[in-house]
Structures are given as C-alpha cells and as structure tokens.
Model the fold of this input.
Amino acid sequence: MSSFSISSLFPFRRVKIDGFEQIVDSDKGIAMFTTVSPDQRYAPICYKCGSKASGIHDNSQRTLRDLSFGNNPGFIIYNYRKITCPNCGQTRVEDLGIIDGTPCNR
Ligand SMILES: [Zn+2]
Done:
C-alpha cells in the first residue's frame, strides 16, 4: 500500500476541484479547464479582514488564465461566494487563498 498523497501539490484547503475538462476547437486547438468551488465545510471569510461570515450574499464565477499544460492553455473556472462581512459591513469576496497563489491557512 502506497503512502503517497497529492495533498501537498494542492495546498488550497478552502476549495475543491469539481472537474477537469479538455476542450478541442478546430481553429484554436486544445484548452484545459479546471473547475473549482468553495469547500462547503468552511465558513466563508472576508478577503479584506479575515472575519468569518455566517451567510452568503451571492455566488459568482470567473474564468482565470492559468499555466499552460504543455502547449495547451490552461484555465480555471473559479466559483466563489460573496459575503456581507460582519466586521467591514460591506459585501466582500470570500478569501479562498487561490487567486494570488498564497495558500489560505485560516
Ligand atoms: Zn471584512
């Protein structure tokens, strides 16, 4: 039985991978799409101050350019939540620690 784990390769604890898809376009070639969403086990936290929010204001999605897979461009379909921060008092995007590449340890 192997003890190898891939968790060290994906240090983003607050997101889960929903899927991975390869799109083939006859003109543009092949592109790789990875879809990620917030892990529902974690309460959302404000990206600005780090406060935990109890409710969700809205759900949104963005497509981000990622590193290429060989010669094929990679993209991340990034689902995230907007919260009303109890500390800031404003609608904020939750911090999933994946956008700036710094793992979120909160
Ligand atoms: Zn806040």
Notes: Residues 46, 48-49, 51, 85, 87-88, 92 surround zinc ion (CB under 6 Å).
